[in-house]
UniProtKB/TrEMBL annotation, chain A:
The keyword Nucleotide-binding does not apply. InterPro entries: Bact_TGase-like, Papain-like_cys_pep_sf, Transglutaminase-like. SMART domains: TGc. Keywords: Membrane, Transmembrane, Transmembrane helix. This is Transglutaminase-like superfamily protein. It comes from Sporobacter termitidis DSM 10068. Residues 507-582 form the Transglutaminase-like domain. The chain crosses the membrane at residues 23-43, 79-101, 121-145, 157-175, 181-198, 210-232, 614-639. The lineage of its organism: Bacteria, Bacillati, Bacillota, Clostridia, Eubacteriales. The keyword Transmembrane helix applies. Residues 586-608 are annotated as: Disordered.
TrEMBL record, chain B:
This is Uncharacterized protein. It comes from the Bacteria. It comes from Sporobacter termitidis DSM 10068. Keywords: Membrane, Transmembrane, Transmembrane helix. The lineage of its organism: Bacteria, Bacillati, Bacillota, Clostridia, Eubacteriales. The chain crosses the membrane at residues 25-48.
Amino acid sequence: MTNADGLFFCVSEESGGGAAGRVIASSLLFLGLAACAWGGLGLEGTGCSPLPLAAAGILYCAAGSRLPRRALAFQAAAAAALLIYTVAVSQFIISGWNVTMNGIFSMLETHLGYIFPRYEVMAAGQSPAVCAGLFLALPTVLLGLLSARAVSGARLWLLPAGLLAAALWAMGATTLYPPDWRWGLLALGLAMLGAWRLSRKNLRSGGIPLALSVAAQTGIVLLLCALLAELWNVSGGANALEAQRAAKSWLHHVRYEETEPTLPEGDFRNLGDFAPEATTALTVTMEKPQETYLRGYVGEVYTGSGWTGLEPSRKAEYATLFSWLHARGFYGQEQYALLNQALGTSGKSNAVSIRVQSACTGWRYAPYGLDGAETDPRQIGDADWAARGVRGEREYTYETSGAVPGDYERLSDLLTAARKAGAAAATDYLAGENAYREFVYDNYLDVPVQAREAIGKVFSGLDLPKSGEISFSDAQLVVRAYLSNIVSYNETPPAIDGNRDFLSVFLGETKEGYSIHYATAAALMFRYLGVPARYVEGWYIPGATALEMSPGEPIALDQSFAHAWVEIYRDGVGFVPFEITPPYTDPMQQNNQRQGGSGGAEIPPSEEETHPPALWRLALILLWVLLALIAALALFAVIRRYAKRRRRGQMFEDPDPSTAVSNMATWAVRLLGYLGVARPNGSLYLMLPELERLLGDEPADQYRAVIEAQRRAVFSRGGVSDGERHQPRQFLTRLEAELKHRSTFGEKLRLRWIACVI
Amino acid sequence: MARTVVCILWAAGAAVVYVFTGTTAALLILCAALALPLCAVLAALLAAGRIMLTLELPGNIPKGETVQGEIRIRNRTPVPVVRAVLHLELENTLTQETELLPLAFSIPPFGKESLPFTFRSAYCGRLCFKCGVLTVSDTFGLIHIRRPLHVDKKRLITPELFPMRVRLTGSETPLWDEVSINLSRKGQDWSEPFQIRDYVEGDSLKQIHWKLSQKLERYIVTDPSQTLDRALLVFWDRSALAKDAPPRIPDTLAEAVVSFCLAVTQEEIPYSVAWSGIRDVGCAVRDVDSMDDLYGIIPGMLEGASDAGGMSGISDCIRALDGKQYPLIAYFSDRVSTEIAGLAAVGRVTLFLCGEDSDACGDLACHLFSPADYRQSLCDVTI
C-alpha cells in the first residue's frame, strides 16, 4: 500500500488463498521424505502397512498448512485427535518403538555387517506390526506437520527438512541407502517446496490448478530423466564400485599409512615387484620366540583382480549365528585355544607384543592360537581384525597358546576321540564349532568361473572323485605338488594387467610370482578341491629368525618379513596357515599331513553368471518409453478434455442470457449431428422430422422450443430472459444421455476423449 | 542467490551419490538436478513472452474519491508461472506525484487472473498508469526474466470549479461583430485610425489624411490600428512552478484557471488561453469561443509540465503568440517572473499569484490567493 501527499494507491485484497495448493505441495514433500525414510531405515521390516501412515501424514499436512479462518475448526479437531490418539495408544508405543528399532537395526546389520542388538517386544496382545504402525503414526504426523510448515511457514522451518534431505544424501553417498525410485518422489517434493516457497508472498497464491501443473511439469521432466538414466546407465554399477574402492583406498591410506604400503591388502591391480625396504615395519617381542605368522589383512572373496571381504549384506545373514556363538564364548580367532581348553590340553601361554612403526596401522597383526584376546562381540566372522581409533593402533599384546598350531592333526584326533567318548566339554565345543563350520563352508568355497576354468586346466590330468570330496591331506598334497610344478618363484614377475583375471594369467601365462601369487592360487585351488580357504597378508617370522631372538627381546621386522599365505579350515580345529611359497616352505610342515578328517566338502557347483540378454534389456527400455508416451498422452487427453468442457461450460453460463441460449442451441445441433441427425442447408426446423423419428415426440418438442428461444435470442430486440436458459440446458443433458446410451464402447471413447463431447 | 547455491549443492550431492552408488535412480537425480532448472528457465522464457496484461480503469474519476481498477492477466502458454511481478506506476502529471505498486502473482497454464487495486487522488490532474516491466521468475526462482510492457493509460481528474465573476476593464472598445479594436495600439488596420500626427519623412503617402492636411495646411498622417478579435489572454505559466512546490499549488492554480476561463466563456467573451511547459513546443495558445472549446483544451492544460527548472515560460508564450496583441492578460502562476515586462508589452497584465506576497507584484495589478482561501479570494475579480 502506498500513500503519497494526495495520491492513494493500494491493492484491493490482501494476499491469501491457495490453501489447496499449499496442501498439495506439502503432501508431495511429505510423501517424498516419508518414502525415503521408509526405505532408508528399512521400516518395511516392521511389517506394518505404509498406506494408513501416508494418509495420516497427508491429513496433518493439511492441518499444518496455512488455512483460511473457516478451517480453524479442522485444525483444532486434528490437534485434539492427535492428543487423544497419543493417550489411547500409549501402552503400545514402547512395543512399537522396539519393533521399529529392531527393523532399523536389521537394516544396519545388512549394510554394515555388524551385529546390532535387538529389543524384546512385548506387544500387549497386539501383533508387532500393529504396534509398529501405532508408534510410527506419531513421527509420521510430525513429518507431515514439518512438511506443511516448510512449505508455508518461516524460513526456519526449512532447516529440519533440509537436514533430513542432507542426511538422505549422506546415506546415499556412503551407500547406506543407495538411491531408488523413492528419491524421484523426494525430488518431486523438493521441487514443489522450492516452487511454493517462491509463491508465498504473491498477492494471490497458486491454487489447485497451479499445484497440479507444477507437479505435472516436474513429473514429466523426472520421467524423461528416468528414461535417459535407464538408457545411459549401462556401466554405472561397475564404475560406482570402482569409485567406492578408490575412495576407501584413499581414506585408508590417509588414516593408516605413513609410507607407501608394503602389502597390497588384496588389491592386485597395480601389483609390482616384491622390493622390500630396510625400514622397520614392526617391532615384535615374544616371551617365547618361535615361528610366528602375524595375520593382517584377510581376503574372503576373490574378485579377479584381488581379494575383498564378504559383503555386509552377506554377513548380516549370519548375525544371529554369531550372536549365539559369541554368547557361548566361541570366537573364530580363539578357536584353537578353545579346542585346547575343551580337550584339557592348554599349555603355557606365550605373550606376544607388537609395536607398529611403518606398517599399516589399520589392521591388528595377530598370531594364530590367540587366547583371551579383546574380541569384538559385534563382529560377524573372524577374518580380519580392524584396528580401533581414527589413526589405527600401534601397540598391543596378545596371549597365545602356540603361534603356529602345527599339532592340529593331533588335536583333531583327540577331539574325535573325546566326541566318541561323549566328553561334555568336547560335545559343547563341537556344538559351537559345527555351527561355525556351516558358516565357513557356506562362504569360503566360492571360486569364480574364470578362475575355476584356469584351475580346471591345471587339474585337467587330476583324477578327482565325482563327488568332489577329497581328504584334507590329499588336498594339501595336490596343491603343493601342482603349484611347485607349474609355477616358479620370482620376486620380479611380469606385471599382470589389472583388467584381466589375475589367477588365469598367473597360472596360464606368466607362471611366475611371489608369495601373493602363490597364496592366491593356493586359496582358490583349495576351494576348488572343497577345502575352505582364505587369502592372508601379514608378517612372517621364520623359525630360524625366532631362534636368534632372546625371550622378551624386541625384534625389528623390516619389509622383507612381509608375506602372504593361505589359511585352510581344518574341521574341528579351525583355520590353520598353509605355507606354499617355495622359499618359505619347511619340510617339517610338509610332514604335518595326516590321513583322515574330511576337510573337503562337495565341490560346489560352478557359478553361472547370468546376464539378461541384450534383447530383453532393449525390450524393457522400449516398454518404458511406450509407457511414458501412453502416460503423457493420457495426461494430455485429460487436460484437453477438462479445458474444453470448462470453456464450453463458461459459454453456456455467459452473463448475457441471449448469448448463453444461442451457444447452447448451437451445441445442441452439434450433438444431434453425433446422434445421426445431420444439419441441413437451411432452416434448423428441417431437422425435426429426423429427430422425431430417431428420438420421439418429446425430444422433438424440446428441440423446437430451443430453436425458438435461439431465434429470439439472436434476432429479437428483447432477447431472452435469464429463466429461459433452463430449457436448452435440459435438452443438452438429455442429448448427452442419449449419446451415451446409443454409442458403442469405441464410439464412447472417441466422443469422450477425442471429440470431448460427453 | 540462496536458491542457486541450493541447486548447485543438490547437483554436486547428486553427482557424488551417483559416483559412489551408480544406481539408475542416482543418475535420475543427477539428470533432474540439471534438467529441472533448465526446463524451468525455458518454460519461464516461453511464458514471459506470452503473458497478456490489460489494465481496466473507470472512465470517470472524481477528485478525492476512491475508485477501483483492475489488471487482468492471461497466460496463453501451457506452462505455469509460479511468480511474476509487475510494477504499476501511477503518476499525476500535474502535481508530479508518483507512486509505485508492486504486484506479485502466480497463474496456472492457460489461466486468467485479475488483480484489483484502488486509488484516489486528492488533486486534479492527469493520472498516468504505466506497467513498464513484467518480471517473470522460473519455477525455482533461479532467474528473473524482465519483459518490457507497454501498458499505458491516462485518466483525467477534472478540477473542482467554483463560481467566479470576472470584470474586464481597459481602453478597448465594446465588441461588435466579434471584433474589437484596441485604439491604444498601432497596427495594420486602415479602417480605423490609431492616431493622427504630423507627417514625418518616410511615411507612406497612403497615410496622409488629405482633408485634415488641407484644413490645417500641413501634412497630417494617420496610423492604422490593430485589429483584435480576442479581448483577453489567460496565460498559465506552468513552467515557473517551483520544483519543490507542494501538489496543492498546481491543483489550486488549475482550478483557478479553469474556473476563470469558465466564467469568461459564460460571458461569451472570446479569449485565448495559453499555457507553458509543453515538451518540445514550449507554450500552446488556443482560442476559446464556446464551452466546447474550453472542454477540449482542459486535458492538455492539466498535462504535466516539462521540467524548465523553474524558468518562466513567458518568452515561449510570446514566441507562440507571434506578435499578436491582447488588451488584457491574466497571468496565473505561483511567482512573478523577471520576464513579466516582456508580457506587459503584449497587453495589460493582471497577476493571479498563488502563495506569493504583495510585494512581488510591483506596479502590476495583482490578485493574491492561497490553496486555503482561493475560492473566496477569486470569487469576484477585475482585470
